[in-house]
Amino acid sequence: MNILKRKVPWVDPITHKSLKISDDSIISESSYYSIQNGIPNFIENMNDQTQKQVQESFGKKWTQSDFGQDDEEFEEKIKPIYLEMMGLEDTNLDIFKEKIILEVGIGSGSSSRLWGPQAKEFHGVDISKAVYRVPLNLKNLDIDPILSQSDINKLPYDDESFDVIVSNGVFHHTPDTKLALKNSLKKLKIGGFCIFYIYKKKSPIREFSDDFIRSKISNLSYEDAYEKIKPLTDFGKILSEKNSDIIISTDIEFLGIKKGTYNLQRFFYDYFFKCFWNDKWGYDHSNLVNIDWYHPKYCWRHTKEEILSWCNEMNLSIKYLKELESGYACFIKKNSTIA
Questions:
Q1: Residue 21 near residue 127, CB atoms below 8 Å
Q2: What phi and psi values does residue 179 have, to the nearest 5 degrees?
Q3: CA distances from 74 to 38, 79, 249 (A)
Q4: Structural domain for 149, as ranges
Q5: Total of domains in the chain
Q6: What phi and psi, each to the nearest 5 degrees, are found at residue 151?
Q7: Same domain for 195 and 56
Q8: Residue 156 in contact with residue 13, Cβ under 8 Å?
Q9: C-alpha to C-alpha distance for 89 and 310, rounded to whole angstroms
């Protein structure tokens, strides 16, 4: 996209001053940012070593995997799950038509296939190097994305610039989920809407197991962690192949287990530890889902009550707050300026 024709320009994420742009750099009064393949890097230094680990983890995930980059595979296998995660259906996607959209945590652009083609102007930011793969992922679609490597809490835009903000499973991978949401919503126009997905707190045993496994996995390199997590993927596959059900006759309240009939693989997954398996996705993509959960050190989980309190504090109207198997899909409207 011609920079001069853009509706929403970049500004210095630190000073919020205007920028001078050349082929290989962006300069403000006090800062210099490099440009690679038309994509600026607005992240100068990262002092938070835990956030740096998350940055590197997702950079590896999205640059070493072709997840979501095949058009046919996306339509058949991945799109239905992404729609569910965001609380949407195919027929809802026209809400993005002719909107100026910012995707916070774009990764390599897999989710962007849902809303990017609808946009009047489409922006994407990501903390990791994965953002540099977005143009390749979206090359077959009618999208001309405006991209930058940026920190959610220091976005390179003026406040109240966008009609829509979307974020699929990102806010909980920051130092503070609520703060990441708040700083993103500052860039949303009054009357604009935001759709996001964040993880929910699960049963006590699952929460304990997740934290324990993460403590063993997250200190490894991404490559070593990918191998280390395979036994969980194998276990999920074995349980899935058994195709057995288990009946829980009464609630086990102190373990958060509700009575009912469960598929055996899903019962372990919901209440004990993540052992994702999806036959349609195959081994590598299923293993990718498991490492996506256990390798990043920042991986907060939240309750419905927390989300409701955030919306009340920030004067947000809730169109829906849907509880899903692993998280919450939330559609909110911004009613006033956020300080």
A1: no
A2: -65, -40
A3: 26, 6, 39
A4: 48-200+302-334
A5: 2
A6: -95, 135
A7: yes
A8: yes
A9: 26
Is residue 116 within 8 Å of residue 123, measured between CB atoms? Answer: no
The one-letter code for the residue type at 191 is G
What tens-digit pLDDT sequence spans the chain (339 residues)?
555 578 999 999 999 999 998 888 999 888 899 999 999 999 977 889 999 999 999 999 988 888 878 888 899 889 999 999 999 999 999 999 999 999 999 999 999 999 999 999 999 999 999 999 999 999 888 889 999 999 999 999 999 999 999 999 999 999 999 999 999 999 999 999 999 999 999 999 999 999 999 999 999 999 999 999 999 999 999 999 999 999 999 999 999 999 999 999 999 999 999 999 999 889 999 999 999 999 999 999 999 999 999 999 999 999 999 999 999 999 999 999 999
In a domain, 37, yes or no: no
In a domain, 108, yes or no: yes
List all residues 6 or more positions away from 1 whose beta carbon is below 8 Å from its beta carbon: 121, 144, 146
